[in-house]
Amino acid sequence: MGGYGRTDSLISLLFSFAGRATRAQYLLGHALAGVGAAASVLLAAGILYGVGASPAVLGVAMVVIGACGSWISVALGVKRLHDRGRPGSLLALPPGAALLVLLAQASLRLSGAGVLVLLVPAGGLFLWLAVEMLLLPGNRDDNRYGSNAPVSASTKPCPECGEALPTHASWCPAAACHTASVDQARS
């Protein structure tokens, strides 16, 4: 993470559950994952069909691609919730509510209006999560999931205080935590 809460590499953005992701990173990550998944499906289908593999082998390949896509989606969602200062476990609320609706419908043999009444709260949770992740900005300040310092290729964290420094800097002028080392670097 480079001392920051923001995600500073593509691998970290797509596969790690730690840190924070801005709205732009969240959307870009999903776009990249979607393109990657589509390309993987086409490539796997083409290769497996070309070598005469059985449909079961193609099915296993699709399950693996789907599992990777699900992991990426959950990792991006957790980091986006972290950017809002919320725990990543909130990502489980809408699917959990939908599962409860299905279980209630099956066990109570509900139909029509009964299912619709149960779907309203589940739909509300999906809507809340969409607003939370897509429309609302992240916390401006640092939160328990990381700092709000921008990650840039032209900056590096100060090893002592974590302040963003230009890559070429040899000392941190803003850090009061190590003024003695700053004085030594200047002389």
Question: Would you kindly provide a written description of the structure presented here, covering whatever features stand out?
Answer:
- The protein is mainly α and 187 residues long.
- It has 3 domains: 1-84; 89-135; 152-187, no CATH class.
- It has helices at 10-15, 23-50, 55-83, 93-108, 113-135, 179-186, and strands at 155-157, 164-166.
- Strands 1-2 form a two-stranded antiparallel ribbon.
- α4 packs antiparallel against α5 (113-135).
- The protein is flat, with a radius of gyration of 23 Å.
- The mean pLDDT is 79.
Write a brief caption for the model.
With 187 residues, the protein is mainly alpha-helical.
Assembly level: single chain
Overall domain count: 3
Number of E strands:
2
- β content, as a range? under 5%
Q: What topology, given as strand order, has the largest sheet?
A: 1-2
> What level of helicity do the residues show?
55-70%
Largest sheet: 2 strands, antiparallel
Distance between the termini: 32 Å
Instruction: Label the overall shape.
Output: flat
Q: Helix tally?
A: 6
Write the H/E string, N to C. HHHHHEEH
Low-confidence stretches: none
Indicate the radius of gyration in whole angstroms.
Answer: 23 Å
In round numbers, the mean pLDDT is 79
Q: Which structural class should the secondary elements be placed in? A: mainly alpha
